[in-house]
Amino acid sequence: PQTVYLKDYTPPEYLIDSVELDFDLDAQHTQVNSRLTMRRNPESAAAGVSLVLTGEELELISIQLDGNPLTESDFTINLETMTIQQVPQQRAFVISIENRINPKANTALEGLYLSSSMLCTQCEAQGFRKITWFLDRPDVMTRFKTTLSADKTQYPVLLSNGNKIGHGDLANNRHWVSWEDPFAKPCYLFALVAGQLECVSDSFTTMSGREIALEIFVEQHNVDKCAHAMQSLKNAMRWDEDSYGLEYDLDLYMIVAVDHFNMGAMENKGLNVFNTKFVLARPDTATDSDYEHIEGVIGHEYFHNWSGNRVTCRDWFQLSLKEGFTVFRDQQFTGDRTSQAVKRIQDVNALRTRQFAEDASPLAHPIRPEAYIEINNFYTLTVYEKGAEVVRMLQTLLGAEGFRKGCDLYFQRHDGQAVTCEDFVNAMEAANGVELSQFRRWYSQAGTPVLTVSQHYDADAQQLHLTIQQSCPPTPHQPDKAPLHIPVKLGLLAADGSPATFVINGQQQTDITLNLTEAEQSFVFDELAEKPVLSLLRGFSAPVNLNMPRSLEELAFLFKHDSDTFNRWEAGQQLVVQVIFGLIEDLHNHLPLHLNALVVEAFHSLLNAEADDLSYQALLLTLPDESYLAGQMTVIDVDAIHHAREFVKTTLAHALEDDFNRVYLIHHRDESGKFDADAIGRRRLKNACLSYLSQLESSDSYTLILAQFEQAHNMTDQMAALSVIVNSQHPAKASCLDKFYQQWQQEALVIDKWFALQASSYMPNTFATVQALMQHPAFDMKTPNRVRALIGAFSQANPVHFHAKDGEGYRFLADQVLALNTLNPQIASRMVTSLAQWRRYDKGRQKLMKQQLQRIVMTEQLSKDVYEIASKSLA
Ligand code: HT7
Ligand code: ZN
To answer: Where is the Peptidase M1 alanyl aminopeptidase Ig-like fold domain (predicted)?
Structure first.
């Protein structure tokens, strides 16, 4: 397969000023008629007179140039393109094409496809070329007029981008609807939807007083699960006006929820298409976290209207320009709507566990990659989540006001354009009169930097000396790294836990952002009468690893006193991490395990402290994930990690049983249907306690858990109980699982939870359960949510069983990847990434994982998607 390089970018040779698309829709035989008004791009330096359009898996019916039919000698078609030998160079011309496609045969869910009984499209990144021949690249922006015709009974609702400009009836029970989008857009933002859909409507009045119609389209049985999505949309629209001064531009905003979707949602202009998972919610079917994710994803897609649609990407290497920025915006939004402290911890936790692993793997790449085989493989944690961290660092460096000025200038300069990450940084510089040349390295350099910190307190001089060295491990094609511009926020604590005042650069302060720009830098903090405790990298001000020796006492002190909510949580995590690694060493040396009393004491005082943010309190009580712990080990030992972590949890449960019971009972009440921060926080804290109590495996704890399962009227409590039951020897396990299935078998999203819970269980026999679930009538390889729930949960959220010593987990995954390869390459390649970390395991597992990767790579007719991930993993 061919590699595409950023360095080879050239402007398009031709432009498409407008396109008229006519779809004669049918599940198996859809005819597409397109009329492209084109001209040569005056900015192109290329000399040729031929026109190359992209198109894949299309059946040509006819083609004309300026109304004259072309014959076979006028053009050539291959697997990916159509080349028309000669087109006018000095004037506009019209290409008219008729072609046929088969949506039902499209299991890759890219282009036009069938989801349940509705037709829908997914065009990002390069799906439009599976609809018709076009210039399928984001820097070709076109005005679209689309007419859809279809059977009136099967497809009563016909939607596309922009405004509805006409409709009517046709013979044979067919009808038509025309849509026009007044904004020029790249074809990746094109969408159409046709089906038997119900519409939930509302409206929003913008800051300038315009009334926008809001419409959510779902299948009839889901109408009662749209209220939260609608409210989320209105919250997002208001938030973007208040926070960025950005107003919606069309008169209509539509969202359609579909069962079959490769990702979370898609920001098509005026017609978002969503995975049902990020729209549908009712208190009894969706958890509190589902509610928060829905609001976050609705916000994310809405925010793309400016950061992505009005200002889009020049080429796909610039993907983080829209994705990193939009993730940053949705993180701010969710933080404002819920708790900034909790949101930041959740985001950093995900980043450190998953993106840091990607950055340390053979798949590491900069947030602006330089080469790809299949662009769909670059919708990564690095481009999205690390990309958002880079935008956050810009905000930290420029201050909230400076950052906003930079955003205003960016939108003003580039409205209606397809631009680059460089343009974004340029706007930040110009608006603030600063120079960010070194900062730009974050866009081109892969890998997670390491900050090695040493400190020395000079009592005589009343000074703290701090030295920070930065380095970055090599990543593929980047053996040597240059120093980055890293903002490091810090504060100091006095012995009584209060903020310590210090003097730096002649100024008295209690916190500061240091600018690291060199490989090694030293800082002196004056006027410190006593030795302070350092709280470094507050708010996780940069996506780096810290290498800073700390005593358990110091961590326990910060866990109690740090005023920075992120670092307080972080101190608790590092305290437990150090203890767990001590236990892992004991396990390796066959020594008996003991839990350090400091940990028990820290958790005891936490459980007895007053708290106003209960969700934050629940996070403070949660032990680091096994996958986070794995990321900290040179050679990952999944069994020892699991054993040591369980030992800590069980010992805490025994030592603090009364505290866990008391806090559980204080917060246990039926508040189903209440989604304010207090009610959510109470559920989170109570369920954190329940999880500890379940470790006791006592008849009292079994009774408590079963009662919660049976009496729950909301999915958060029901799932929390079922989850601990599934991960225990609870005698009612089989009957609870069965009851849950019977209760929810009509709700696909709840059944996904049922699959995922069983696939991620630590209990023995899980692999056999997973194999049996593959044969379950409700399992379907063509439904990505189901595949993620079963195969994804097993391979990504069940380290102990996926990494079983005999390699059965790896073999199973490779079998499924190969089955998915032909059905849905995007989903198949996502599944391969679990094998990419093979070098991090012991020799025996390395060999077994590598064998499966090799087996995948050697398979004939491998998709580009799977080939790229598997071959790069082996490199
Ligand atoms: N911008 C959207 C990306 C997306 C996507 C990419 C490849 C294949 C399928 C896809 N569905 C959606 C989603 C987003 O980031 O908002
Ligand atoms: Zn996005």
So the answer is: 447-548
**Distance in angstroms (rounded) separating the CA atoms of residues 841 and 484:** 30
Q: How far is Cα 355 from Cα 795, in angstroms, rounded to an integer?
A: 17
Q: What is the pLDDT of residues 765-795, one digit of tens each?
A: 999 999 999 999 999 999 999 999 999 999 9
Nearest to 192 by CA among 214, 217, 224, 169: 217
Q: Which two tokens stand for residue 574?
A: 């590092």
Give the architecture (CATH level 2) of 745-875.
Alpha Horseshoe (1.25)
Q: Which residues contact 348 (CB under 8 A, 6 or more apart)?
A: 540, 566
Tokens of 470: 């930065």
CB 471 within 8 A of CB 452: yes
Is it true that the peptide bond before 125 is cis, omega within 30 degrees of 0?
Answer: yes
Place of tokens 């730009």: 440
- How far is Cα 761 from Cα 622, in angstroms, rounded to an integer? 18
- 110, 124, 300, best to mutate for ligand 1 pocket (most atoms within 8 Å of CB): 124
Q: Give the predicted TM-score (pTM) of the model.
A: 0.99
DSSP-assigned states of every residue in 74-93: TEEE-SSEEEES---SSS-E
**Atom 1 of ligand 1, nearest CA residue:** 266
pLDDT in tens, 655-685: 999 999 999 999 999 999 999 999 999 999 9
Q: What is the mean pLDDT of residues 238-246?
A: 99
Residue nearest to atom 11 of ligand 1 (CA): 263
Would you kindly state where each structural domain of the chain is located, as residue ranges? 745-875
ipTM: 0.98
